[in-house]
Amino acid sequence: MVHNDLQHEVEQFYYWEAELLDSRRFYEWLELFTEDSNYSVGSRLNMGSGAVENPPAERKVIYHARDDKHFLVLRVKRLDTGFAHVEEPPSFTRRLIGNVQIENENRNDGRYQVSANILVVQFRDNASTVFAGRRRDDLRRVNDQWRISSRTVILDYINLPRVISILF
Amino acid sequence: MGANNGPDGCVDLARGLISRRIFVDEDVYRSELENVFPRSWLFLGHESQVPKPGDFMTTYMGQDPVLLWRDTKSRVGAYLNSCRHRGVKLCRTDSGNANAFSCRYHGWTYNSQGELTGVPFFKEAYDGELEREKWGLVEVPKLANYGGFIFGCWDAGAPALDDYLGELRWYLDILIERPLGGFEVVMGPQRYTINCNWKLHADNFSGDSYHIPVGHGSWPRVGLPLPGNNPDWTLRDTYTISFARGHSILVMRLKDEAYEEDLMFAKAAGPEVVDYVKECRARLAARLTEKRARIYSLGFGNVFPNFSIFNASALQPLGLHLWVPRGPQVSEAWEWCAVDSAAPPLVKELAQLGFMRGQSAYGFLGQDDADHFERLTEPALGAIAKRYPLNYQMGLRRHDDLNMEGYPGKFVPYLSEYGQRNFYTYWAELIEASTLKA
What we know:
- By secondary structure, chain A is α+β, with helices and mostly antiparallel strands.
- Chain A has helices at residues 4-22, 26-30, 69-79, and strands spanning 33-44, 61-68, 92-103, 111-124, 127-142, 145-155, 159-160.
- A six-stranded mixed sheet of chain A has the order 2-1-6-5-4-3.
- By secondary structure, chain B is α+β, with helices and mostly antiparallel strands.
């Protein structure tokens, strides 16, 4: 059983993080990632089951991003170039973070693995797109602040409904 | 090039004018499904995707779902992915290994040669009279493997793949011969929907070097290197080369430039990568003429109609891009990343990162291309906009005589729309011929 205070703290951190992304405060958002962090986003492959030989896990997911902090910063800087046409004008996003599950809560080194469901609605040119997925983070407590040292998001899509121009 | 081609003369290549209608119109789209895709050689997959007996993968030929399947005797066949009984899609997964597929509706079962081998209640339901040998899977009649790339064609009377590719092969061989261990598809398919006609992708890869500085302007502005490392993008000695039947390759350089760039990046990555780049170059020199070995790399290109290749060098991913038509105003990008199976692990890793960061769903190039094509589509639906054709006039009169002795294909400078006009010339021929036929 996860301690209520810890659960509350992590959820509050996620709500704050979601607010930063939805209000496009991307540079503040970047500060939540440690310098050695990585950021991955994937979607699913259609591998089936049954008669087909059970495929290994890596064949069930295709990654669209496997960034280090350096490249994640470039994703944000790109939006400032005036030439990230797919975000000109910027899209609106609204995200819900739920089903937050903290693993290994008994560690005392300040490191936690946290899984959460994410639901992001992106509005652009009167069209809306829903991105749903499972997010798994490695969180660290650094100087009493939460920091993300690893994030992997697997979107529950096989055919993505559009290109991905937002951050998760 | 002829004038007034295509349905209702909406492609006027002599004047460099193309009606927006061809990117939105239902009738034009239907005509393409009937006359462009079934008469062209279409990319199905790479042999590394079906290496063992029983291996299969699913893809599309035009809008038709297709199953590529290596049978138990190791022969590769391609079949319409649809049960012959009620037409239900037979194989529902991307890839795997199977000796047989059973339809989930009534249970008709096919072996890896496409034969109908099982019919539930055969005696009771059909009195044992169903001619099973006539109801095997619909097989793609022509299949050919060019350097590991498997193509299929529905038209039994079509020219051989070698003839279809024509002089493009002289350059494709550079791509095929360079990897030390042959290509291996390591990622894919990555799939995303773009609300635009499939031709806009093919058009872009057939000659649109012009869009790179503005359309992909974010790339150099965040400090990422461009091929040629030339900030103003008026690249000299960089060409688009066009071929019969609508194929083109672009950002082509002939004199070691691509190799020199690879060497420069390799030096930053370490001695193992430098050795690798040199080995690739030496392999080309041993297998091809010096003239071809110096080219070293294809830039980008489109094999008519809807298969594009992205491979700026040996350190870049080989991006295989299939633009799947899904309707007059909808397409899906199906993208795979291939690498040299014998490349050092670091090169393979860098190539995969390059694929994800460039021409792909979350990549800096793929994101903006999709946006350009969608923004082109929306105005084209308007009644007034349809009266005004699009301008394809770049280089219309300037460079018809650029003569490159000893190099096959039609050469035009980097900034030209000849490649697109070449694409639509052949496209219009197919559509026009079908109009006459009807």
